[in-house]
Amino acid sequence: TVAGQFGSAVSGMSGSEGGMTNVQLLQQMAFLRWLSSQTDEDRRILAAVTGFGVGRELLNRLSSQDKVDSYKRDCILAVSEFVRQNPRASQAQINTEVEKRVLLFAAQVKALETALI
């Protein structure tokens, strides 16, 4: 139904930063176009864009890419926090911290790979 499609479209409108992802924006544009015309062609476009978004999200969840990206952000933030808290750290100390954080990142990714097998 139109109400059901509208509800599901509205519930997926905000991204992690309060805005829409590119895929969500395309889906909303296709949905708006279909709402104004309700032609079969616009319905097919809406179905294709929505299908692409669903497929992309399924691939992301199956591959755990979102977790890998989160681990990478955590690694970078931890290194930058170390440098911020230790402005007089030597290059050797910074290298040691980077190595430690990269090894942790690698272990987290390896654990994900093991869990998927």
| Helix-strand string | HHHHH
Mean pLDDT: 82
Which sheet architecture does the biggest sheet show?
Answer: none
Q: State the secondary-structure class.
A: mainly alpha
Give the % helix. over 70%
**β-strand number:** 0
Radius of gyration: 21 Å
Number of domains: 2
Indicate the low-confidence ranges by residue numbers: 1-16
How large a portion of the residues is in β-strands, by DSSP E? under 5%
Q: Based on CA inertia axes, which overall geometry fits?
A: elongated
Number of continuous helical runs: 5
Distance separating the two termini: 39 Å
Commentary on this structure:
This protein folds into 2 domains: 2-62, no CATH class; 65-116. It contains 5 helices and no strands. Helix content is 83%, strand content 0%. The protein has 117 residues and is an all-alpha fold. Helix 2 runs antiparallel to helix 3 and helix 4 packs antiparallel against helix 5 (91-116).
Characteristics of this structure?
117 residues, 2 domains, 5 helices, elongated, Si:ch211-191j22.3
Gist of the model:
The chain has 117 residues and is mostly helical.
